[in-house]
């Protein structure tokens, strides 16, 4: 394990903590896409089934359990505890537009045609597009709360650090996972415009706002 992997995990965990604290303190999930959170919960569920079959390390197991628990707590807070504050009208991205092609691709392009491997591949592909409902929601409302942008920044940073992790592993271990790398690059590309707005507006104390769609 290298520093990029650890920093990536820390950034990912920090993003989730920021989101949970935002919802808990404000007692509101306004501006948060419940659909994106459902997709992330599905990502962790299908990826971490190996918890029941393989032990890698204490660190690996603990992080997987934490991500799973946090994902379902987030979904619970949005759809149950604070459901009255949930903006279902603007959280209108059609999930089937993501789930159908991702499911098909995971059957066509995988490392081995076994149930666990197909589900792992499905989780990798799905994670690369899981943020789209959140970005779509922001584009639809035209703005995002500062705390929400911090969440998105650390989520994007996690992916960028994992790309560095793959580069490091390629040069030090001669390890290369095409499915993970390509999906990670695609996911990072989705964050590029957001990163630009984050550095040019949010970090300067301005509210992140976008042109309203026509």
TrEMBL record:
The chain crosses the membrane at residues 62-80, 120-138, 150-168, 180-199. Its main location: membrane. One of its GO terms (biological process) is vesicle-mediated transport. One of its GO terms (cellular component) is endoplasmic reticulum membrane. One of its GO terms (molecular function) is ER retention sequence binding. Keywords: Cytoplasmic vesicle, Endoplasmic reticulum, ER-Golgi transport, Membrane, Protein transport, Receptor, Transmembrane, Transmembrane helix, Transport. The keyword Transport applies. It comes from the Eukaryota. It is a multi-pass membrane protein. It is found in: Cytoplasmic vesicle, COPI-coated vesicle membrane; Endoplasmic reticulum membrane; Golgi apparatus membrane. Belongs to the ERD2 family. PANTHER family: ER LUMEN PROTEIN RETAINING RECEPTOR. This is ER lumen protein-retaining receptor.
